[in-house]
Fold each of these.
Amino acid sequence: MIGRTGFDTSSIPDPTLSLSCDWDGVSPALSVGSSIFREWREPGRDFEADFAPLPVLNRAFGGSQTADQLEVMDAIVFPLAPRVLVYYCGSNDLNAGASSRDILGNFSEWSRRAQEKLPGVNIAFVSINRAPQKRPLWPVLDETNERIAAHCNESGRGFHSSTFRLNLRHFCH
């Protein structure tokens, strides 16, 4: 694992809140990652419809880096036994000076663990957003997205979406 230790865990959602939900035996779609997902809103967007018939849970937390996702996945991913995992993380890594190789290494390990503990889980990596404030980082951001897309294609451990216009219905039926 490449990253940091001792990050602030106060914004991590309590996974036990979801364990009491009644899903009629249906495994959920779970979004994980950083605040882009935690705060993801689009006018007119119906996220529940995107994932139907699966229930949708959001376990993203602000400030998250890829190493943090590795550290918390035992607590926030595996107890929920999701059928679909949607991952957005890496932007904060770039802000902290991580290389594309570091981010790819952490995502690769994360997806390996997910496939190992949740055989058959579908993983979608949503590409790191080219936000205007990240313009100086766009070269490494683009390299990271390209490396992860190649990893998803070569390893068979995921699907890479190059836009936020993500339609996961093919994962959910």
Amino acid sequence: MTHPPRNSSFYSIREHDSVVMPHRSQKALLKLSKKQIKPGLVVIELTGRVSMGNDCLEIDRHVEEHILHDEKHLILDLTGVHHVDSAVIGQIVKSHSRLKKSGGMLRLAGATGMVEGVLRLTNVNKVIEIFPTATAASENFPAEN
């Protein structure tokens, strides 16, 4: 198996708390950034097109990292996401389950258009609360265990 050269766009670009994942189309990159609102509560902002493969692995890695650092209340801010596929829906549900088992919680924010439609069609909204903004999602979070 041949690997692309190190300077190829195949590799993730990591800057501060942001990750840009190359995708099928260079126009549609997943960008992931995070910010801590208060101890134990983190917003992970996703933008672009989010699809199976590396995108799901990156989300999974971030959720696991936060659980290990005892940051178990997460908000996935989907305001900038214009497309998700079924693998991403599965990853969101998996993340919700892992956080719940660790004593935490996942909330979704900012889903509109196609993304909101898919979340409702798959009934994710009946399992995970969806808020119009990350600010609204951050209010009244249960106290840390």
Amino acid sequence: MKRLFFILLLLPCICDAQQYNYYSGAVADSSTRIFYQKMDGRLVWLTTEGRRELELLAGYFQQATHLGLDAKDYEPALVQAVTDNNWKMPAAADTFTMDMRITAAALQFFNDIAYGRQIKPPVRYDGLPLLPDKRTIIATELADYLMKDQFFSFLQAIEPADTGYLAVKKSIAGICTTLMDTALTEVPVTSLKADSSNTPLLLRLHQMGITDTLPGILHTSLQDRIMKAQQLFNVIDDGVLRSRFLQALNVPLSSRLQELKKSLN
């Protein structure tokens, strides 16, 4: 059965590269085929040896919200059920199907992190060469990290390293944590005072994850924190409070979270 699966993966595409190959009901696109070719056509996640990688993958998926993504886009029920040993796969073909589904979800997840979540297919222009399929790049890199037993560092390796991305990511994590607080109260910032007496300002910066401490115990310059928030909102970042900045600061956290997520994708 494994030999048959491998042969099917190696078969050249009879039709266009965008078409699919079917194996026992499983859908294998070009990136999935490349992944399994790199992995010698063997099961990856649903073996005793692959248990650790599967648990690492489940952990990565749990970070989806903090990465500006929606966890339900990546087969969360399937991955969690298999991780918890609650998924029965009586036939070998079913096992391959599940393994491929998990791989497809992993490739989509890591592609969305590295290149952003693409809702619509890119526009193609006649006469211009096609851009390389980024999912195949991710497939190759993922296989390489798995074979080198370095999957634990894969997420960090493919994440954008620019400061803007990291600032948005930190703010998303801060807001997510804040919204989980059942005692959350959003107090509007009305004062233009940029000092420690402006308690609503300090509280808001903390709620957004821009300061790591509660009002009254700031360990870094308040002006630096204000400037970071101003950069996040794309307003003049000089540490001076203005009405436009206060308007942005007072946007409900739930709405701000959605805006930040969109900015990463």
Amino acid sequence: MAKGLGNVCGWRHIFPGIGLMLTPEDLTEPGIFVRVFGIILPGIAVRMPATGVSGMARGLYPVPWSPHLTDCTRRSAAGYPLPGKKRGKTSMLFISRGEHLTMRHTPRKIAFLLIIVVLALLFLLPPVFAADVAPSPAVPANTTPAKVEVGIFVNSIKNLDFARGTYTMDYYVHFRWTDPAIPSSRFEVMNGQPSGANALVENFEDKSGPVKEEWYRVRSDFTITPNTRDYPFESGSLPIVIEDSSHDTTDMIYVPLANESGVDPAFELQGWSIGVPGFSVINHSYPWGESFSQLTFSVPVTKNATDSVVQTLIPPLIFCMVALISFFLSEEHRELIALRYGLTTSMFISAVMFNFSQLASLPGIGGLTLFEKFMISVYLFLAGTIVVTTLCYISLYTWKRPDLARRINWSGLAVSILVPVGVFWLLLAMA
């Protein structure tokens, strides 16, 4: 046998737990390798027994890859038959150092070993795959949003300027809920800003039991879109709009506590009467796809009619009454004609100045307010007194017709009253 190598026989362990009966036949080309079932397995260590080994020490022999591998054909390149073995029997594995051995195999044994390998894989692989694809435990989806009850109690309203749509409120906000998934009420005032230092103070908190509560005292400066079309008889609502800053409508919704809300009955808003407050709740949607529960607490207010009349309408009416005196001054005396001119023109200028002072506090709304319609009628009356006085002067001193001057004076009085009143009602109907 070349290089002092003898035959190799007996059980050989090439896989953990799997033994193969090896009966090499002959030596062929140089190289060190192992071929099992027609598959080349380079780099495998094979434990060799002491018996039946000639020229090889007992131990592990690495089997590297060799470029000199051939198909499982019977060769005798070296020409050394193995003693004591019949050629072509059950050779399944061939080991050589410096040379390599080809193999022959029995189909029955091959099938038996394949079944063992497949069964081993079936026992090993399913637990691994099951661990990889095992579904996580199902978590029940919360399809019903939590309900957070909200109460608002107003302590005071200050700096109300309804014409500009600004006001300041001091109020309590009360939250109550039972869902443990909501740790706190993270609300924000949507139509206002904090008013000064310590504008938001948490007065009370109780989350020890199943019902959780939070109380806040808030001071805010609010801004609304003013509605001055009915000026000076304004009326409207002063809203407080709050919205949660972290939980959308899939997590929680607001529920009003109407019985625990309102305005302090001891509070009085000078010049205004306060109605019964009310709640409204909507889902406020945003363009990025989220929707939040938005609660509005509205305090209805109406300006006192007496104050409006005295402060806004009485002065123009006084201007008209002074100018009305001119109709009772005789037009036949030049001195009285001059007095009539002085009364009517001065009242007209006074009305214009008063109108400007009132409009300076009103924002532009793109239309006529009730006060402006009233002032248009005042202008027409005062302008009529000036026109009548001028016609009386012409009839008396230019045309020399005192009778015509008297008819113009009294007819002008009626026209100066009826025309402004008619125009005023027409403007009201056009609103």
